[in-house]
Write a structure and sequence with these properties.
Layout lengths: L2 H48 L13 E4 L2 H4 L4 E8 L2 E7 L2 E2 L7 E8 L4 E8 L51 H27 L3 H12 L1
Antiparallel strand pairs: 1-2, 2-3, 3-5, 4-5, 5-6
The structure holds flavin mononucleotide (FMN).
């Protein structure tokens, strides 16, 4: 006799639970989309700082290759963004991880132009000490900006070190380990690019351009 109100209450509770879960799922779905878009925009902004938007006409975020050079790049696989204009190679942006910073891995973006000069270096994330190693951040000092325009000839290979080690790059007062590790990572990226840079663009060729002749052949 008294069962109906209980069943009704149960039903209402179930409906609320379903509506609540649905709302949470919907909000998550909407937010995840927006977060992904924001991350993409932020990455594109960073890439365009190193490879100016007007210097390329491809979708640099999607035009990527993955390389395996753990000794030079600090991790088993490294993503590289390829900038092109009119089908010609313009610059490659490497994403090495510096393994030998003071407090853990330092993630970098290192842009190299086709003439072998650096478009620039930026720190994406690090755990270096505030006031010491964190001067590698663009907003803390201009140290990281000084890589732009450098190459394996400028300075010469043996000078790709901090001044303390006989090279051309400043260290920070009381903090040599962090800058030393970044200089080494930038040099290693240039070495990789010198030997295999052009091949990356061959490997990463836009798929439509590769497919078209094949379709014509069988066409
Ligand atoms: C608490 C603490 C934090 C430090 N953080 C850093 C750091 O983030 N980067 C760095 O290169 N050195 C850091 N150092 C200094 C290094 O231990 C090392 O002494 C220094 O890098 C060597 O450079 P120097 O020969 O110019 O003193 C730190 C030292 C201490 C005690």
């Amino acid at each position: 006799m008294n069962r109906h109100p209980v069943i009704l209450a149960g039903l209402i509770l179930t409906l609320f639970a379903i509506a609540g879960s649905g709302l949470v799922a919907f909000t998550y779905w909407q937010t995840a989309d927006r977060i992904a878009q924001n991350e993409r925009d932020a990455l594109l902004h960073q890439l365009h700082v190193l490879v100016p938007a007007e210097s390329i006409d491809n979708d640099i975020i999607s035009d990527t290759v993955t390389l395996q050079a753990p000794d030079l790049m600090g991790r088993p696989e490294t993503l590289v963004y390829l900038g092109r204009k009119g089908g010609k190679s313009v610059a490659a942006v490497f994403t090495p991880v510096v393994p030998d910073g003071y407090s853990g891995p330092i993630k970098l973006l290192v842009a190299v132009k086709m003439n072998g000069t650096l478009g620039g270096v930026r720190v994406i994330s690090h755990k270096e000490t505030p006031g010491l190693g964190d001067q590698i951040e663009e907003r803390k000092s201009d140290w990281i900006l000084r890589f732009a325009g450098k190459s394996l000839n400028n300075p010469t290979l043996s000078h790709w070190k901090v001044k303390r080690d006989g090279g051309d790059f400043d260290q920070f007062t009381g903090a040599t380990i962090t800058p030393r590790s970044i200089v080494k990572a930038a040099k290693n990226t240039l070495l990789y690019f010198r030997d295999r840079g052009q091949a990356l663009f061959e490997r990463g060729k836009a798929p439509e351009k590769e497919k078209k002749p094949a379709a014509d052949e069988h066409g």
